């Protein structure tokens, strides 16, 4: 006999994770007789610093039915072509991580091999000359890629900076319009079912009991359901990712918003600067072993441009992942599922893929163990690959000016990352364990930014003449240079197409 279907989904916690889940589930489960209830306590609040994203957010917004330009107006967003890194390799050094690809592949061989062949004869060659994202960012310009570009160089990825609270509000309104029930109450008790320990119901502080079949934990670091009730366990990654605290503050704008995030390495961590239409988000992510909270706050306030418009907000975290993202009938999303520092803006992306996994393996009331095991495997794989990418930023540093950076340079790395680094150094091959959150071009950005040059290139290009390679790359460079210079400014694009109503002129 088949098991009964899921009839009631209860999402615990609002914020970005909760309302992304509500918006997506109400869209893709609309043809099923499923009730979706979201319970949050607005008196508790959310972490609310997830204001920068990676390109997957563009497709997510489209999938749940958001119009891009309306979304940008409503969240006072700006565009993000990539990330500018300052003082990471060494003090005074700077490089850019664009979301766009570099150049184009030829004869089945990846572009970086041609570039490094060129660089061998021309040491001043700059990889960023071959990325449309880098060229646009250099001039503070922006252009949307065409849906059907006649040139492969015109097809590129981008993301957004936005106000996380306003984004949650947009998704909340969308979800409620589709029938999601919103309850603003605190949860007093989580009731477990006798016999198998599944979550049966939630007791609210007004005395009401909310029963459900599937419970989605979006309660942040607390993990009210997945950890406090089901004791799932947590895998600590602080031996590789030392930073365990942050302080954030919002400030007034002092310049036009840049189409990229800025991250600057400091004595015991790094500082972010995220430009929105109406303000700038700032934060210092640091290791409490080497810096106390008061000094971190003082340093942050000294370094921000503009006047602070909020009080500095501290929070602590432990880098790592929940040992199971899906345990019994509880599914964890967002910070409840684990946390990797926001250096490459992956928090919202992890929410998105978590929702995708749930929809792909959406259960009935049997909660098939094979499906649960596969989702947990995929989550572990994704988290570990992102972990490796973030650790790469610390391991490759040449900085030895503080104890923090000396530790990073000397620390052992996960074997999976060590193999990737050594492979690239030896032959310029960028290894990916599909699927990964970051494309090969992102790995190339970081290798190049930290000065890693492969010892040799792909043997298949040895028959090409150096001059022919130089001519082809010169054409690419010229095309992208022209496109970057001739696009309109980022601020002008926003003013014309998607300025928030209170910022239109």
Overview of the structural elements:
It contains 15 helices and 21 strands. The longest helix has 27 residues. It is of the alpha+beta class and 505 residues long. The protein is globular, with a radius of gyration of 23 Å. The model has no long low-confidence stretch (mean pLDDT 95). The strands form 5 sheets. The protein has a 7-stranded mixed β-sheet. Strands 7-2-1-11-20-19 form a 6-stranded mixed β-sheet.
The spatial strand order of the largest sheet comes to: 5-4-14-15-16-13-17
The largest pleated sheet is described as: 7 strands, mixed
Q: What amount of the residues lies in strands?
A: 15-25%
Low-confidence stretches: none
Per the principal axes of the C-alpha atoms, what is the gross shape? globular
> How far apart are the first and last residues' alpha carbons, in Å?
64 Å
| Radius of gyration (Å) | 23 Å
Could you write a compact summary of the structure shown?
This protein is α+β, with helices and mostly antiparallel strands. The chain has helices at 15-28, 56-63, 68-75, 111-121, 132-138, 164-177, 224-229, 293-303, 347-360, 369-395, 403-410, 415-427, 440-449, 466-486, 490-497; strands at residues 8-12, 35-40, 78-80, 82-86, 94-98, 159-161, 181-184, 187-192, 199-204, 209-211, 214-217, 234-236, 245-251, 261-266, 269-275, 280-286, 313-316, 320-322, 326-327, 330-332, 338-339.
Task: Name the descriptors.
505 residues
């Amino acid at each position: 006999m088949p098991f009964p279907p899921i009839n009631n989904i209860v999402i615990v916690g609002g914020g970005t994770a909760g309302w992304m889940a509500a918006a997506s589930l109400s869209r893709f489960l609309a043809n099923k007789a499923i009730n979706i209830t979201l319970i949050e306590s607005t008196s508790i609040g959310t972490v609310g610093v997830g204001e920068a994203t990676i390109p997957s957010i563009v497709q997510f917004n489209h999938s749940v039915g958001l119009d891009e330009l309306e979304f940008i107006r409503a969240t006072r967003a700006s565009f993000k072509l990539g990330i500018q890194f300052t003082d990471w390799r060494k003090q005074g050094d700077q490089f850019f991580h664009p979301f766009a690809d570099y150049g184009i592949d030829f004869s089945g061989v990846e572009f970086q091999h041609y570039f490094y062949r060129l660089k061998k004869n021309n040491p001043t060659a700059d990889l960023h000359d071959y990325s449309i994202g880098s060229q646009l960012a250099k001039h503070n310009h922006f252009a949307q890629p065409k849906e059907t570009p006649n040139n492969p160089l015109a097809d590129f990825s981008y993301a957004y900076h936005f106000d996380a609270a306003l984004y949650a509000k947009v998704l909340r309104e969308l979800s409620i319009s589709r029938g999601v029930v919103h309850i603003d109450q605190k949860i007093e008790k989580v009731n477990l079912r006798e016999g198998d320990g599944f979550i049966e119901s939630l007791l609210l502080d007004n005395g009401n009991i909310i029963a459900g079949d599937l419970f989605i934990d979006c309660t942040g670091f607390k993990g009210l359901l997945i950890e406090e009730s089901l004791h799932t366990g947590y895998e600590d990654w602080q031996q590789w990712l030392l930073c365990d605290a942050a302080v954030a503050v919002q400030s007034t704008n002092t310049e036009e918003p840049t189409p990229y995030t800025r991250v600057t390495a400091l004595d015991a961590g790094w500082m972010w600067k995220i430009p929105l239409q109406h303000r700038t988000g700032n934060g210092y992510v640091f290791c409490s072993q080497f810096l106390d909270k008061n000094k971190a706050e003082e340093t942050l306030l000294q370094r921000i441009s503009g006047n602070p418009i909020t009080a500095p907000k501290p929070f602590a975290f432990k880098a790592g992942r929940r040992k199971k993202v899906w345990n019994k009938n509880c599914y964890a999303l967002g910070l409840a599922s684990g946390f990797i520092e926001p250096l490459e803006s992956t928090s919202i992306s992890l929410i998105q893929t978590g929702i995708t996994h749930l929809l792909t393996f959406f259960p009935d009331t049997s909660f098939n163990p094979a499906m649960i095991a596969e989702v947990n495997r995929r989550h572990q794989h994704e988290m570990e690959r992102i972990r490796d990418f973030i650790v790469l930023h610390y391991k490759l540093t040449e900085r030895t000016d503080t104890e923090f950076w000396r530790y990073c340079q000397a620390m052992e790395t996960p074997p999976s990352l060590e193999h990737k680094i050594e492979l690239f150094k030896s032959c310029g091959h960028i290894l990916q364990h599909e699927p990964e959150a970051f494309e090969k071009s992102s790995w190339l950005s970081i290798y190049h930014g930290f000065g890693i040059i492969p010892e040799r290139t792909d043997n298949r290009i040895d028959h090409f003449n150096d001059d022919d390679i130089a001519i082809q790359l010169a054409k690419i460079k010229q095309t992208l240079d022209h496109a970057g210079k001739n696009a309109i400014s980022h601020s002008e694009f926003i003013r014309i197409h998607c300025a928030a109503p209170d910022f239109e002129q």
